[in-house]
Here is the input.
Amino acid sequence: MKKQLLALLLLGLTLSSPALAADPVETRKANFKQSGQILKAVRGQIAASDWQAIADGAQKIADWAEKMPEFFPASAPSRGASPAIWENFDDFKSKAADNRNAALALKAAAESGDGDAIMGAVRTLGGTCKSCHSKYQAK
Here is the structure.
């Protein structure tokens, strides 16, 4: 029984490892798309006073931003990613951290229920996206 439990635990760790993800490029594309959809939905969620949906979406963005650099191994370039990412990886990681912090600020604003604060946090979060895209998205 202990061996089976250990085997299941190791299998779970192996399957959840970003280094062993089937396709890091597709994973990052899907997460960036989801983040964009979350941000687009915020205006409607404010109108509906759906603060929890905004907070949940912001947490998803923060979670993605935290692990984002792991999905940019040098072995997984793509047409959308500039080689500058790997040339300036510490800066790229810093921009991902800025994105995470801005997403957490959006979550806090959502939890306050203040629509103006939420929109300000959305603009700040969008600015972190733009800052990274302008430098690291292939043109």
